[in-house]
Amino acid sequence: MSAQKNPVSRESRPKFALDVDLADEARFIRSWIENPKIAGAIAPSGRFLARALAQCVNPAARGPIIELGPGTGPVTQALLARGVPRSKLVLVEYEKRFCSLLSKRFPGVKIVRGDAYNLADTLKGILTEAPSAIVSSLPLLTAPEDDRLTLLQQAFDLMGEGGRFVQFTYGVKSPVPTHVGENLHVRIQALAPIWLNIPPARIYIYRRAQGPTQFREPPDVLDVIWRRSRQAAREIRDEFKFIEARARRAANGRGR
Ligand SMILES: C[S@@+](CC[C@H](N)C(=O)[O-])C[C@H]1O[C@@H](n2cnc3c(N)ncnc32)[C@H](O)[C@@H]1O
């Protein structure tokens, strides 16, 4: 008997072709050069981080799963590979070029172009059920603290009880401030750092809590490595800036 092909696992299999990876890196660098606060990174998330984020959701849970800031789609790919049906996935992306790329790359997945910090308005009329989870790659640290808190509040209001807001950060602390106000009771879980990412990242899961927020950042014995990796990432970024400036000068005929 011939082996039955499984179309779901086939279509969601990650592409590791070097040309796709390099093209995505180039898209990201361009987006970062144009607007570093929106892009938040010079490269897409690596597959270990993407996979770890996808592990935080239950694909069988009732209701859609929202992804904020999908970029070129590494986390989307991992969510599909995890078994989230395309029909349950809603992507919210600000950058027009990423939206066009995502619609070509992930047919059947709903893509909403809009501002994730204004989540309630951006998703108005889109959802028919409360989402079970929101997975965010937004560069929260580049946004004012108030915007981050408002985002979390809106996310909880949309999801209702039991929903989880999953966020990664390159920072060493929770990107949603832990001294959150009385009205936003939140339970925070910090997962182990993902070292196999450039730069290393940590995932935080936020859920509604009964009482006031109480959270202590986990002690990080590898803090020094963490900080050095971040320094290395900054140096690479500066190098890219330098190369870009030189290329621009050369293009304008003033390169020599
Ligand atoms: C750090 S990148 C992450 C991209 C991708 N998820 C990954 O892991 O490689 C941040 C993404 O968030 C998007 N973004 C930033 N601000 C946004 C906003 N206010 N609303 C929606 N998307 C936003 C950026 O365009 C970018 O695609």
From TrEMBL:
Q: Which residues form the Ribosomal RNA adenine methylase transferase N-terminal domain?
A: 49-190
Database matches in SUPFAM superfamilies: S-adenosyl-L-methionine-dependent methyltransferases
User: Does the record carry Transferase as a key word?
Assistant: yes
Keyword set, alphabetical order: Methyltransferase, S-adenosyl-L-methionine, Transferase
Entry keyword Methyltransferase: yes
Q: Tell me which species this is from.
A: Rhodoblastus acidophilus (Rhodopseudomonas acidophila)
Q: Name one GO molecular function term.
A: RNA binding
Which named protein is this? Phosphatidylethanolamine/phosphatidyl-N-methylethanolamine N-methyltransferase
SMART domains, A to Z: rADc (SM00650)
* InterPro entries, per database record: rRNA_Ade_methylase_Trfase_N, SAM-dependent_MTases_sf
